[in-house]
Amino acid sequence: MRVPLFIAKFSRYEYWPWWLFYLPVLPYWLYLAVKNKSLAYFTVANPGIELGGFYGESKTEILSLIDKQYLPKAISIDNSNNFSDILARMKEIDLTYPVIAKPDVGERGNQVTLIHNQHELILYHVKSKSKYIIQEYIDYEIELGVLYSRMPDLQKGKLTSITLKEFLSVMGDGKSTILELMQKSLRARFQIDRISLELDDEMNNILKEGEVKLLEPIGNHCRGTKFIDNNFLISEKLNEVFDEICLPIKGFYYGRFDLKVKSIEDLYQGKNIRIMELNGASSEPGHIYDPSLTLNKAYKDLLSHWKRLADISKGNMKLGFKPVSFLLIIKSYWKFVVLKK
Length: 341
Fold this sequence. Notes:
By secondary structure, this protein is of the alpha+beta class. It is built from 13 helices and 11 strands.
């Protein structure tokens, strides 16, 4: 008998609403706030990023701080731009389909879309209500979330979380439709309504035995991606690779890179790395959502990262940086979340 979806949602913490997951550890966050004499202490963790990269920061502005050798080709678009100008700009940098379109300010994969052709891009442009990015689609198979941090008075940082992203897919058995295969998978079941709108009649196709159907090309946890703990990859050599990437980024000390790389060998050599996004103070250590981790272990790792964030913030406050008013945090959340609903 299949477990009802609303019950299954609470059988594993990775499916919990974000506020429910964080609720038990809120007292520790308040403790760190009191210790640092500010409810917004984390906004000085990255002085070079608006609000430290907690919320409402521009992806375009953050990516502009990173050496171009690590970046996909991309252009920033205002929704008032003439579409012919957009096509001209794409042609200028040889940005061809497929591409990724995503809001310049956004969270948790909202409105991130794989665009296959001009028609789809026109539809995205028409629906877009704010500034967005058109980014080269990198087809490397390996996508990682890599969390890096460095104390402000040191020239060496360290990696504390590496998460491998396994995209949502189903494997055929020669007799079941895509819909039936999704119904058999707990992870896929949560995405049936959304995927059905995208695949339409294709949901009734029967996959050959062993045939894999990729259902979601965007590596986001909220869209069915499985996060796998790959912390075993952390080494002094890899720390040095990310020191080389991060040290030139002015005012950056704590954050998670969402990147693709051709191979793990290339990762250790610092080549064929493409950084799609860099998140700041609000970055989670993605490996805590690995299904094999216990809730206690997840909380332990999360709190250790919060302490690291607080230590970095304290170090920057000693250098003269001051946290913003917590009211500004509330206003930012209201502007970019509440008003956009």
